[in-house]
Design brief:
The complex is a heterodimer of chains A (307) and B (607). With 307 residues, chain A is α/β, with parallel strands linked by helices. Chain A contains eleven helices and nine strands. In chain A, the strands form two sheets. In chain A, strands 2-1-3-4-8-7-9 form a seven-stranded mixed β-sheet, with helices on both faces. Classes of the chains: A alpha/beta (307), B alpha/beta (607).
Chain lengths: 307, 607
């Protein structure tokens, strides 16, 4: 994590604010944006090095609301585009944003592969259990029985379990938070950004128009309970035995299997080489073999082998 | 046309190869090897092609590959000549048959009076004397096994045949041996030793005595500069690198895969990277990510894969992202004929995707041109900031040709421009070319751009304004019209006016050129132009068309519902000229010169 100690001017929320979000009043995504600004203010990432990338959906409008280099791409493909940026530009901080439809449905395969490859970037999923931009169709996380315009008698397909998908896919940082818990959200974002590798934060972010109240049972202000994951402190105490080991994949699955709304916090965090590092090693080894040769000389060698 | 014995054939009664001295000089020779793909018959062809490049001969090869995993019947045809070699040859002068099925399926492709060498271990003895063909049975398999000994089984019989051919045609043995040593030496001492045993055994086999003569394949006139010998996909790969490509992404599909395989291994040497993505959509998206980051980036595929990339290509047109896309066409639709040739992706390349999404489409005409077309694609992408689709095909991808080594002295390394973008930075000015601000570039005014697929204004800001949509649509179209104005018309080969103008694009260049010279000798005046720029087309074809009675577009695609191939349809629409007609076919094979000639004659006589 680099911080811009040589920057005379501090990066502020004002610098980072762009268009006023087009989200509906009360949308959970406003809080996600606010938390993101606060974390960037804290980390002081050089302004021009921030790159925000999204696909299609309500939450995928995110890049328009952040004044940074950004891409509003096509539906479901934010992650491969972001992977291209991350792999070819190690100087940047790459962020991808999206919703449950973009990330778990149309882009579901890309998510598995970005996770498997451990691409160095941070991905924030604003999960609202419904398609909002297209006005209330069933989403891959809609619970069974949810009445939508495409399931008027209630959804019948089993929903995706995002946390299981992320851990199984190979994401090296998997966190879960709630848009009504700004402090916790900031903590998750900061840890995800500092994690080297493919870090994902799943945020339960309410769609107040098409699925109001769905996340109330994890919101203490609405009578729910926001239950946190207690992580191991490795202090050799008796209590510590019951705490969660974030490096243990099986424990992560157990947490992911808890009855909804389950627990919040870091499910999994592993130290695994990124594709960025592994590719760089190959590049370095290849460069060493060709020595001081210019690219024209390397190409000339290739042609010489065809004579 | 490819064999012309210099000795007077009237001195003998036995076909075109007869000669009193027992040595016949040849200007050209077409040799077809027919066997199974696992026998390594491609290796024989590749060695001969490489030797040709080193002997100032021209060469063109043609091969068929089974689309099955475990191999199967396959041919490799080599056309060697001391003059211009434009096609792989309609018929062969020599046929080498490894199996009964090879003989049965390919004897028809041998010329009258040609020579058929067959493996008498696998092919029934041929006694009949049809069409003056000389049949020579040689126990290729058992002689090879005998020569190598041990447990070699029948491996190495391709190299045995190479030795046989070297002797029969009086080829330069030392040059060939050094090529074998270089190529097979890498695979270990045992492999090389066995290969040399097989080669020497073939070389010592008295095939010339059995036929009653030997051949002397003339070397060509030494060209200035070195010749290199390679296939189209390799030439394309190296052209991309020369053009400044350092990043790319793809997904395996035949026959595109060998480009991505080579880029994967080559780019790290230049500090770059090629990524195998999870699918075609991921590949094109990642390539757009590389391009957005400020690099010259590529993706590629073959027909079905190009279809999958279409949505993202629409985005690249809208967001004005420079992107090179290689499409190695194959037989379609759907899985179609994955290892056969077709030129049926032209409309897809120009008009595929949703909305009106103009992009550049160009096509190489031969292996050498793959290299230069790739470089031009990189230049056009950078200049016009849109997708540039290069339409090559299966035949070009795999065939081998020799050409002059390119001049690399002007090769420039790409530089990432992360300088501060000044005040009034407009990525999409209505009156100028696209400008880019890759991530990492500070924005002097503190306002950072979001690159979007939504319609936008000059600053890239989303805008649903009806007038703005029209003006931006004009802008994206007019960029290509500017390019059209800068293009020059292709050169005319053959007659500059007369009966027929042949129009071609892509890999049909050789057969079309050969057709021109063949038709000219029959009192039909014919010229030919070959189009590299397919979208936009250069301006002014009407001036060329005016000089001919017929404009005939030769393509490897279907004549469609209205009797016109894909380029013919475009030209008819562009020029509203009823004299534009089509020669089309979709049998998965390259054009034989004869096929074109016969159709031209029919068009001329029926008018």
């Amino acid at each position: 994590m680099s911080s811009a100690t040589d920057e005379p001017k501090k990066l502020t929320k004002k610098d980072l604010s762009a268009d006023h979000p087009t989200w509906c009043p009360g949308c959970g995504d406003f809080a996600v944006l606010a938390a993101f600004f606060k974390v960037l203010e804290k980390l002081q990432i050089p302004h021009e090095k921030i790159c925000t990338i999204a696909g299609i959906g309500c939450s995928s409008r995110f890049p328009y609301f952040v004044n940074s280099h950004g891409v509003h791409f096509i539906h479901g493909r934010a992650l491969p585009l972001a992977s291209g940026v991350s792999l070819s530009r190690p100087d940047l901080h790459v962020f991808a944003f999206g919703g449950d439809g973009d990330g778990y449905s149309i882009g579901g395969n890309h998510l598995d592969h970005a996770a498997r490859k451990n691409i160095n970037l941070t991905y924030v999923v604003m999960d609202n259990f419904v398609y909002g931009l297209t006005k209330k169709q069933t989403s891959p996380t809609s619970p069974e029985g949810f009445k939508s315009k495409t399931d008027p008698t209630g959804a019948i397909d089993r929903p995706i379990n995002p946390m299981k998908k992320l851990v199984y896919g190979g994401a090296s940082f998997v966190g879960r938070t709630h848009a009504a818990q700004v402090k916790h959200m900031m903590e998750m974002f900061e840890r995800a950004i500092k994690h080297p590798g493919f870090s994902v934060v799943e945020v339960q972010s309410e769609c107040v128009v098409f699925y109001p109240g769905i996340f109330d049972n994890a919101n203490p202000r609405k009578g729910g309970e926001f239950e946190l994951i207690e992580e191991k402190k490795w202090d050799n105490t008796e209590e510590d035995k019951a705490r969660h080991d974030v490096t243990d994949e099986n424990s992560a699955y157990e947490l992911a299997s808890l009855q909804y709304p389950g627990k919040f916090g870091v499910f999994y965090e592993a130290d695994r080489p990124t594709k960025n590092q592994l590719e760089q090693q190959w590049i370095d080894a290849s460069r060493e073999k060709v020595g001081e040769k210019s690219s024209a000389e390397i190409l000339a060698d290739r042609f010489a082998s065809m004579k | 046309m490819s064999v012309s014995a210099t000795s007077d054939s009237s001195e003998t009664s036995e076909g075109p190869f007869g000669s009193a001295e027992g040595i016949t000089e040849l200007q050209n020779a077409v040799i077809r090897f027919a066997g199974n793909s696992q026998d390594g018959i491609q290796t024989i062809g590749a060695f001969l092609a490489k030797l040709a490049g080193r002997s100032a001969r021209e060469v063109m090869t043609y091969m068929t590959i089974p689309s099955t995993i475990s191999g199967g019947p396959s041919i490799f045809q080599v056309h060697l000549g001391s003059g211009e070699v434009l096609s792989a040859g309609d018929e062969s002068d020599f046929l080498v048959s490894f199996y009964q099925h090879s003989y049965d399926n390919h004897i028809a492709s041998l010329k009258d009076g040609g020579i058929c060498i067959y493996d008498s271990d696998h092919v029934e003895e041929i006694k009949k004397d049809e069409r003056g063909i000389v049949h020579v049975g040689i126990p290729i398999t058992s002689t090879t096994v005998e020569a190598i000994g041990g447990s070699a089984r029948d491996r190495g019989k391709n190299i045995f045949v190479l030795g046989l051919i070297t002797q029969l045609f009086q080829l330069k043995k030392e040059k060939l041996v050094s090529l074998i040593e270089k190529q097979l030496g890498r695979k270990g001492e045992d492999v090389l030793r066995n290969a040399m045993l097989a080669f020497d055994s073939g070389f010592a086999y008295p095939v010339g005595d059995i036929i009653g003569q030997q051949f002397d394949l003339k070397e060509g006139i030494e060209k200035s500069g070195d010749q290199v010998t390679t296939d189209g996909n390799t030439a394309m790969t190296l052209g991309l690198i020369a053009g400044g490509v350092r990043y790319g992404a793809g997904y395996p599909i035949t026959p595109w895969s060998t480009i991505m395989e080579q880029l994967r291994s080559e780019l790290p040497k230049y500090g770059g990277l090629f990524v195998q993505a999870e699918d075609e959509l991921g590949a094109v998206s990642m390539a757009i990510g590389f391009a957005y980051s400020g690099h010259v980036a590529i993706t590629g595929s073959s027909g079905p894969g190009l279809s999958l990339k279409m949505e993202a290509l629409g985005y690249a047109t809208m967001a004005e992202i420079p992107l090179v896309v290689i499409n190695v066409q194959r037989g379609g639709p759907s899985t179609g004929l994955p290892t056969s040739v077709e030129q049926s992706d032209l409309m897809q390349a120009i008009y595929g995707s949703h909305g009106d999404a103009p992009r550049i489409v160009i096509a190489p005409k031969n292996v050498e041109d793959c290299y230069y077309t790739a470089i031009e694609a990189c230049e056009l992408a950078k200049e016009y900031s849109c997708p540039v689709i290069v339409l090559t095909d299966q035949a070009l991808a795999s065939r081998i040709e020799a050409f002059s080594e390119p001049d690399l002295s002007k090769m420039v390394d790409p530089k990432l421009d992360l300088g501060s973008r000044g005040e009034e930075f407009k990525p999409y000015p209505l009156d100028g070319l696209t400008r880019h601000a890759p991530p990492g570039a500070p924005m002097a005014e503190g306002k950072y751009p979001v690159v979007t697929g939504l319609e936008h204004d000059e600053w890239g800001h989303p805008s649903g304004n009806p007038e703005m949509h029209q003006r931006m649509m004009d802008r994206r179209r007019n960029k290509l019209k500017t390019l059209a104005g800068a293009l020059t018309l292709p050169e005319i080969s053959g007659d500059e006016s007369g009966d027929v103008l042949l129009v071609g694009w892509g890999s049909t260049w050789g057969p079309i050129r050969e057709s021109v010279s063949r038709v000219q000798s029959r009192d039909i005046s014919v010229g030919a132009i070959h189009l590299r720029h397919l979208n936009p087309l250069p301006n002014g074809f009407e001036k060329i068309f005016a000089n001919y009675k017929h404009v005939v577009v030769v393509e490897l695609n279907d004549e469609g519902l209205y009797g016109s191939g894909q380029l013919a349809t475009l030209l008819r629409s562009r020029y509203c000229d009823p004299k534009i007609s089509s020669i089309c076919k979709t049998d998965g094979l390259t054009y034989k010169v004869r096929e074109i000639v016969e159709k031209i004659e029919a068009i001329v006589t029926s008018s």
